[in-house]
Write a structure and sequence with these properties.
Layout lengths: L11 H40 L10 H9 L32 H9 L7 H4 L15 H53 L22 H12 L19 E3 L2 E3 L10 H7 L7 E8 L1 H4 L3 H13 L3 E5 L13 E6 L2 E4 L15 E5 L5 E6 L9 E10 L5 E6 L2 E6 L6 E12 L2 E6 L5 E9 L4 E8 L13 H11 L3 E5 L12 H18 L4 E5 L5 E3 L6 E3 L2 H15 L3 E3 L1 H5 L4 H7 L14 H21 L4
Parallel strand pairs: 3-15, 3-16, 16-17, 17-20
Antiparallel strand pairs: 1-2, 4-14, 5-8, 6-7, 7-14, 8-13, 9-12, 9-14, 10-11, 10-13, 18-19
Length: 625
Amino acid sequence: MSSEPPRPQPKATLTFFCVIFLAVGAQLWSWSVLARHKHAELRALKSSAEADAPEAPKAESLSLWLARRLDWAPRDPSLFLPRLFREAPPAPLFDLPTEDVDDDRVLYAFSASSGEPTEAQAGASESTQGSGVAELSTNERSAELDSTRDEVLAQVKLKAQRQAKSSQGQAKSAQGQAKSAQGQAKSAQGAQGSQVSRVTKLQEPERPEGRSGEDLKLSVQQEQEPNAEGSGLKSWKERPRRVRKRGGVPLLSVEDPNGALRPFFKRLALAKSGRKVRVMHYGDSLIAGDYVTSTMRRLLQKRFGYGGVGYVLAGKPSPWYGRTGLKLKAKRWKADRATRSTSKLSIYGLGGVSFRSRSRGSYVRAEVEEQAQLDARVDRLELHYLAQPKGGQLSVRFGPSERVISTTAEQLGPARVLIEAPLGLHKVELKPVGDGEVRLLGMSLERSGGGVVYDALGLTGSRAQQQLKWDRATWIQQAKWRQPDLFVIHYGTNESENTRMSMSRYAEVLRDVIQRLKAVNPEASCLFVSPMDRAYKDEETGRIRTRPIIPKIVKTQREVSLAEGCAFWSAYDAMGGWGSLKRWYRASPPLAGGDLTHPTRRGANLLGAMFYSALMEAYTKSGGS
């Protein structure tokens, strides 16, 4: 029996180190390729932002494709540790409400204390028959409203008890420390006669000149107790300002140290007595779709009275443009947008879009729709158009009224026409006659008398700096026709595309925008609203992260708005601050869309209710009812 020679054993140690060497080398190579690709993307993004043109998509190279698949190490080193030793994520500041907003509950939270019934609770007692307004019985909501009031009172009482206990505990601890100090002083004085060398005198701390003991105590308390409201973001991941709940929605106060909103609140108090109150809300695609503004308009009109649909464009510049309570349709009109214009003229109107046509087959049709708990009837049409040499004629029909107007003028400039009709849910139809070019700037459907008119002036892809490119004289003239009482500036989402944007340059743009608004009406109030949290999905880890530039934009907007005499409300902090859009996206049902930029309809309704609550809290504090 012959024995086989022993087989050579594999060198396991050498094989192990070779595999480790190859893995580390592949990881280092993939890191270098991904870093070069990231820097190239930033340079291309910066150049496209400076040129104000979208970047063309590029095909993925083979090296980049291979580097992404060889990248095995996680970006967060703590992921190598067991879960027991990992740092726990911060707890959310408040429970995110996923149920739909209850208008009655939100309205009651700010109107019940003053004893003022809202228009929704008043029902159809102030409207005529056949208006299509649904009656709301107060008795049906009394149980819910009483429970809400009891809940609020219980929370206030519990907070007061906690503060009282805390103050008592601090007082007792202070008394104990004082007694202990007195005892030490007595013992030191008793031993002073026999052992002077070993006595340690109890010295008082040095007191600055001109400051009493109470002043010192107050200064120590101010240093130990930070401001609960917060003054701004000092770092990207700083915990947002204190958010509480009222009316079933999170509430973050408006920052108004200059009292910028007082003129608006004074006029708002007169809305039900026949004074028309107008709000012009500028923004980007969020406002173009009437997402947040529809909730603001609905709640304000339910409380202070219905003033009309407000200013709308004479067409649809994008498929998602619309207005709640108005059915809008246009055909065969050429749209000139301020963000992407093909016309030599920079006259776009209040909404940043003008529509022109020569064809007799062109038309614009708008129909006012019924709204729940609101009398949505109108009796007044205000049409804005461009008067120009060789302008064509336009046929205008508003309810039973119909007329033909000429847009011909010796000089180029904005013009308007006012048409009245009996109160009703009217239809509007605009048709060129076909004898020349007609350029429409927009129109407004309103009701005579008091109430609130909330204009949503949003434009998809718009930024604050693009307002400065509009024709100044035309815009100021149209804005003076509207007689706004409050300007709301709501930009920042599209600015976040430029990750290397200069904050100093952005601050200059915001100042110029504010100066243009003040040129319309120096007595009008000004309110800045920050962008929402915006996120992106990390390609390496697959995690959803907040864009780092968003807190920078919020901080710059806060500083500029308060320095220029405007109020400020941070939608970013109201959502929850850093990482909040991830929570909104993963809520059930979702409150943010899959693009990690825009909210869903439910999320926008919640954000609008939060904005309304913040504004009404400031209104109540100012003495409004």
